[in-house]
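Exercise 7b. Backbone tokens:
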């Protein structure tokens, strides 16, 4: 479990250290839960698959960790690992160029783009799998992420492999690439359309948070759409909606539980049960009753 990303959980200050002994046993670096604010020993959070033991918040984990959790050991073969975005528009924000930002993100995350894609086995079932990494520019979709998704879907079609994509993409479509990002919505949706016509199943797993152009394209187009508990997913965030319509929003708006109730998710699955659930679903979708999860 060496690939957790902690950028959304603040490292604790000195004033928090006294709380640790009261709240958690053990020692070592600690983090603060983004949702409930409890202090958690990092090692214990890792042991709990990145899920807060106090409030059940399913925190961000890296794409590599997600692959390790879902795919049989030693079976994952990465595709298109050499693709990286270019700063086509010469984009700058807050005085920093997109080129510079990309360099920093690549160094920090030790991957060239926000998506890890490839093939592997899930409880012995061959699958094509893609995972966006929430630590790489908020898992946002630029031209390379869209291209990797599309190539993965095309590979799944050619080999008739079920496709699973886990989205952790609070960044939606990446603004740094403008229309080059936005056109990925149409491209990925078209690739999924071909998959659907051919009867190859696609399961979309939505994690906290999945927003904007990703929710409005591939994340919401699954034959089965699964949410992690409490995951936030939607096109526009609640603050903007509230300001626009000048009304208070319902409790839990855009969270998994709300989305399930309103028909936008099919299932909510705990992280510790995701691998088993995906295996069961694959058997159902593929009509294979010879294996059990
Ligand atoms: Zn918590």
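Sequence design result:
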């Amino acid at each position: 479990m060496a690939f957790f990303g902690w950028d959304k959980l603040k490292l604790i200050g000195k004033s928090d250290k006294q709380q640790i002994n009261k709240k958690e046993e053990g020692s070592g670096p600690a983090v603060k839960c983004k949702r409930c604010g409890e202090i958690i020993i990092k090692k214990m959070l890792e042991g709990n698959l990145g899920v807060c033991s106090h409030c059940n918040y399913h925190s961000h984990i890296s794409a590599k960790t997600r692959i390790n959790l879902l795919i049989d050991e030693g079976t994952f073969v990465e595709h298109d690992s050499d693709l990286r975005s270019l700063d086509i528009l010469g984009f700058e924000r807050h005085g920093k160029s997109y080129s510079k930002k990309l360099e920093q993100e690549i160094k920090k995350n030790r991957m060239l783009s926000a998506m890890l894609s490839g093939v592997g086995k899930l409880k012995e079932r061959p699958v094509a799998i893609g995972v966006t990494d929430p630590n790489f520019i908020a898992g946002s979709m630029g031209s390379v992420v869209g291209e990797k998704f599309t190539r993965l879907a095309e590979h799944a079609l050619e080999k008739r492999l079920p496709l699973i994509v886990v989205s952790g993409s609070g960044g939606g479509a990446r603004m740094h690439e403008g229309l080059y990002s936005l056109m990925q919505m149409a491209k990925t949706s078209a690739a999924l359309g071909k998959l659907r016509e051919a009867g190859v199943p696609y399961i979309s797993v939505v994690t906290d948070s999945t927003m904007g152009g990703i929710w409005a394209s591939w994340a919401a187009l699954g034959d089965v759409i699964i949410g992690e508990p409490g995951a936030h997913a939607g096109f526009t965030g609640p603050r903007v909606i509230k300001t626009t319509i000048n009304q208070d929003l319902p409790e839990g708006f855009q969270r998994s539980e709300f989305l399930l109730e309103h028909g936008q998710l099919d299932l909510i699955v705990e992280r510790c049960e995701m691998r088993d659930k995906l295996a069961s679903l694959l058997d159902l979708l593929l009509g294979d009753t010879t294996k059990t999860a």
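Instructor comment: The CA atoms of residues 186 and 217 lie 7 Å apart. Residues 33, 35-36, 38, 52, 54-55, 57 surround zinc ion (CB under 6 Å).
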